[in-house]
Amino acid sequence: MHSFEPDGTRDEALFRPIEQTTRKFWITVGILLAIILFAVVMFVRQLYYGLGETGMMQPVTWGFYIINFVFFIGISHAGTLISAILRITQAEWRRPITRMAEVITAIVLAIGGLHPIIDLGRPDRLMNVFMFGRLQSPLLWDVTSISAYFAASTVYLFLPLIPDVALLRDRNKKHHWLYDFLSWGWQGTPKQWKVLHRAINIMMIVVVPIAVSVHTVISYIFAMTLQTGWHSTIFGPYFVVGAIFSGIAALFIAMIAFRSAFHLEAYLKPIHFQQLGKLQLAMAVIWTYFTFCEYLTGFYGGEPAEMKTLLYKLTGRYAWLFWTMITCNFVIPVTLLSNRKFRTIKGILVSSFTILIGMWLERLIIVVPSLENPRMPFPHHIYIPSLTEISLFAGALAVFALGFTVFAKFFPIISVWEIQEGRQLGTLETTERVSAYLPDDAVPHA
Amino acid sequence: MSRWGMVIDLDRCTACSACVAACKVENNVQVVSATESERGRRMHWIRLLAEEKGTYPETELAIQPNLCMMCDNPPCTKVCPVHATFVGADGLVGQIYPRCIGCRYCMAACPYTVKSFNWNHQDPPAEMLPILNPDVSLRPKGVVEKCTFCYHRLQAAKEKARAENRPLRDADYQPACVNSCPADAMTFGDLDDELSPVTQLSRSTRAVRMLEHLGTQPKVYFLERRDAQL
């Protein structure tokens, strides 16, 4: 069935960014490194002086770092989960998208996973988590499921990369040792193809429950406490939906960025954006539904402590952020994505940016207002992030961009063999599959 | 085994803050600068919370001391990832400073907002050094701390009882805040001792526990004000 040989001489456009280094590449890397360096300096200062360098205080003991932790881990769902769903459902339009999605996951997960550590008052005692870890703490569930997800998604990124690495090995003199090592002796024998396909099939099933568990237990960090606005049963699925929602937005931005930077218009066609846009629209509606459920039940019950936090968000100090979030996550994306006229690449780019802003605000609106409204009449303080926190946020974004840029320098950002497989086998398979759905007499005579 | 608890009579409390000062000195609680205090980093193991009740003109200022409630079912110990906060054998909620990783999850989980975090390095001014209590360790930056019911005093009382070859009794020790209360508003003792004053008072019809509906089962009771209008 899979007796096809990827052709290293076709699809030059996908190899070109690896083999030709432009000045633009070095400028990008330089700028990103400068931002990262600044963030590192700020972080070292924080290590030296303590968390007093942040804007956190009592009672708002969690701020930007935890917000960004939830946000980045959320984005990581772009990847593996979406790519797995598209593979499982045999969506043929997945082929130019899956690689980028998987790369997002691996990079963002590493960034997100670091955030709880930079948030620690004593990062030097991190090993205590492993030496004295107590499984009853939701933080331990996080450590467990994020490490599992990181392991699974790097494997899931690497497996479909092998045939492409082998193509690069056979083409390139540069970095030959690297590609030789990473291709794991890939020769493209029928047996190797069989094993590879089976491994990918196993992994795509395995990553789905792991991915769902990751954002579920992140929501449990909040939901397991008794705080107002956090202690909610729908937090698990609400967070997962939000994660996929923001993940697709990040994926869109990556697709559009690489499409224009690498001139991949032939590979990433408007149809791909249209299709993924429909999935994004569905997530926007589901997210809005969950938000509605969450706030309506709190409001209708009207428990005084709960109401205080809720009104603080809806009409109080956080109202402008809350309604911006609703605009960014519901009004703009649903308007743009539900209308064929606006579901263009430009429209999708706009809605992706608003969704990322809106989902970041959602994390902020979950974390901070609850802490600013403790149940006891504690002196009120407003959380304002410090320069340290803002520069570490910028640094995290820069690490993401740099990771993507460096990956694209070494590996094809679109899976070459999967595109070629689609050309040679996908079209035939699809014809056969559709024929199989129909009454037997409709089978075309071969 | 004793179950140490406290009753605070809000009718007697004059909000004089003697308990706050006594606690701060007794437990070497970090004194922060004025700017840090403004930013919400001031540290107390016991503090007075003020709440304006009612709507103008019918308002009333309700003041209550706020300290670790020593819950029997504490939300903070459940979430600690490293067993740095725990319910000890004598029912008191403890905090191990050298183990705490400073994730502040316990602070986020505590519905009473009684835990404090060392945002900055503790650098007591030279004049403070001679008056630091040698029985209580200074906490490094980056760890969480809270009221211990003056556990060092309990340790001393235990040692004394052992030396005198007798079991620990109700009146063997008092935390510094209870000691210093000029209005006798605070009563401390063994809640398992039927005859102790603290047990008697905790059964008063005026006795309430904060946020009792959350099921945390605090061991600090408050006697409500008789003259409270609102």
Brief rundown of the structure:
The complex is a heterodimer of chains A (446) and B (230). Chain A is mainly alpha-helical and 446 residues long. Chain A has 17 helices and no strands.
Q: How would you explain this protein's 3D organization?
A:
- The complex is a heterodimer of chains A (about 450) and B (about 230).
- With about 450 residues, chain A is mainly α.
- Chain A has a single domain (about 25-415), classed as Formate dehydrogenase/DMSO reductase domain (Formate dehydrogenase/DMSO reductase fold, Up-down Bundle), CATH 1.20.1630.10.
- Chain A contains 17 helices and no strands.
- Chain A has helices spanning about 10-20, 25-50, 65-75, 80-90, 100-120, 130, 140-160, 160-170, 175-180, 190-225, 235-260, 270-300, 305-315, 320-340, 345-370, 385-410, 415-435.
- In chain A, helix 5 (about 100-120) packs antiparallel against helix 16 and helix 14 runs antiparallel to helix 15.
- Chain A is globular and about 70 Å long.
- The two termini of chain A are about 15 Å apart.
- In chain A, about 45% of the residues are buried.
- The mean pLDDT of chain A is about 90.
- With about 230 residues, chain B is an alpha+beta fold.
- Chain B has one domain: Alpha-Beta Plaits (2-Layer Sandwich), CATH 3.30.70.20.
- In chain B, about 20% of the residues lie in helices and about 20% in strands.
- Chain B contains seven helices and ten strands.
- Chain B is globular, with a radius of gyration of 18 Å.
- The interface of A and B includes residues 58, 62, 126 and 376 of A.
How is this fold's topology laid out?
The complex is a heterodimer of chains A (446) and B (230).
Chain A: H1 12-19, H2 23-49, H3 64-75, H4 79-88, H5 98-118, H6 128-131, H7 138-158, H8 162-171, H9 176-182, H10 190-223, H11 235-261, H12 270-301, H13 304-314, H14 319-338, H15 345-372, H16 387-410, H17 416-437
Chain B: E1 4-9, H1 18-26, H2 34-38, E2 46-53, E3 60-67, H3 75-79, E4 85-87, E5 93-95, H4 105-109, E6 116-117, E7 144-145, H5 151-163, H6 176-180, E8 186-190, H7 197-202, E9 207-208, E10 220-223
Parallel strand pairs in B: 1-10
Antiparallel strand pairs in B: 1-8, 2-3, 4-5, 6-7, 9-10
